[in-house]
Amino acid sequence: MKSILVSGGNSGIGLQAAREFVAQGHRVVILGRDQRKGQEALASLGEVGKQAAFFAVDLSTHASLREAAKRLLAENDCFDAILHTTGVFTSKDIRTVDGLNLYFAVNYLSRYHLMQLLLPTLRRAERGRVVMMTAKVDLSTNVDLRLFPKFEPFNFRRMNDQIAIGNHHYAAHLARTEPELLAGVVNAGAAKTDILRLSPWYIRGSPQS
Ligand SMILES: NC(=O)c1ccc[n+]([C@@H]2O[C@H](COP(=O)([O-])OP(=O)(O)OC[C@H]3O[C@@H](n4cnc5c(N)ncnc54)[C@H](OP(=O)(O)O)[C@@H]3O)[C@@H](O)[C@H]2O)c1
Questions:
Q1: Fewest CB within 10 A of the end CB: N or C in the chain?
Q2: Of the ranges 131-145, 172-186, 189-203, which one carries the lowest mean pLDDT score?
């Protein structure tokens, strides 16, 4: 039995992954922001849901992420794998309390920050694994450090690719600096989930589509 953290596991791709992990007999800790969705996610796992726990946390702010990491470290000696499926999708320049763009804060920075704080738990695993779910990006894209971390002036198109390539860059960094870990990135493709909930109706499409 492995211990697996699914960040963003209270819906969509993360929930499906959590479902498959518990079905295979693993213990799963799910992170998400919405407490109600988290409880519904646990209930949807049925009997094997006893092997899963939900922890509500807003990962978009430095302070609450640090608090969450402190609690995860206190309650979990070892994680064999961490799957990052946290994400929002919005072309608006929504800012977090730290003054960062929400999309950047959730889809990239929170993963980096959480991983760095939880590395001790993965190092205790026999062969720890880290997977980051992100969108398709041309791998020839260069990281433009002048844009980080403020993304001002805001330009969604430029930011979008930078966030996706940032995930690749960080996974490559982990693979290089933590030789005992397996780290990688998965392109989510196009899955019908809740990811467009912050987008206008003409992007979300009709309820039937
Ligand atoms: N679906 C696609 O076609 C597609 C395409 C390309 C990339 N992706 C990427 O794949 C990943 C999974 O997306 P999905 O489609 O499964 O979408 P989803 O169902 O909306 O899942 C996103 C997850 O992120 C969590 N989250 C968002 N903001 C958070 C915050 N501030 N703090 C903590 N948790 C937060 C959500 O929890 P709450 O609901 O509680 O906020 C939810 O569990 C995302 O990174 C997404 O960008 C998806």
A1: C
A2: 189-203
Tokens of 204: 């979300």
Provide the b/e sequence for 91-123 (b: ≥16 CB within 10 Å): beeebbeeebbbbbbbbbbbbbbbbebbbebbe
| Residue 11 Cβ < 6 Å to ligand 1 | yes
Give the model's confidence band at 12: pLDDT under 50 very low, under 70 low, under 90 confident, else very high. very high
Q: Is the CB of 167 under 6 A from ligand 1?
A: no
HEC-encoded secondary structure of 4-67? EEEECCCCHHHHHHHHHHHHCCCEEEEEECCHHHHHHHHHHCHHHHHHEEEEECCCCCHHHHHH
Q: Which of 134, 122, 103, 172 is nearest to 13 (CA)?
A: 134
> What is the 196 CA–ligand 1 centroid distance (Å)?
9
